[in-house]
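(Protein data)
===
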Amino acid sequence: MAVEPEQAEAPNVETNKLSLPLFRRPNKFKIGEDFDLFIKKYNLYFEAVELEDVKKRRLALLFNLSEDAFRLAEPVEFGEGENAYKDWIGNLKSLFERNQTATEKRYNLHRREQEPGESVDSYAVSLREAGARCGFHGDEYSSRLVDQFILGLRDKATQNKLLQEPPNSLDDALLIARRFEAENATMKTLAREATEKLSRTTIGSVSSLNAAKTCYSCNGFGHV
């Protein structure tokens, strides 16, 4: 008895399309690396995968930044209009620029201290921006930021705490600094309320005392 040959299954166009080998994405950008080269590689990648939507390009680029680079780039405004993507890339290049000498960049980082009235979060963002221009990598980048964060803190109690128990990262240092900042704000609020209460009590006591005094002219009360 003859055996009929197995019929070949009709090719599934969609399955074949999905199983095609994808182009390998360029490596993630890390602070201190060549940002121009990173963008050039990604522009080629976007052309290869035919990704034309500029908003999706923005998301793809953000997704492929290192954690520290993402923190700096994500808040950069993405405007409207046909030049929105180009302008956004230009702002990122300015953020990660290398126009200054290495010594100047390190100098700007090391002289950065927390300004009066500046929150610890704002101070940390500023340090990340300054550190991004120094070209430090990996553990060195992290340790430099932590050191300068502690050195430039205005609150000495927070500074001493971080010196006695060195944090492993800037994020860890921020957690402690935020707690101290919140406690200081609470103490200032309580002190202000106590001062206001004491002032009201003092005024009330003086008024009561005046009301109890006898007028020497008419022997009446309350108008001395």
Summary: The first helix runs from residue 13 to 19. The chain has two domains: 35-100, 103-201.
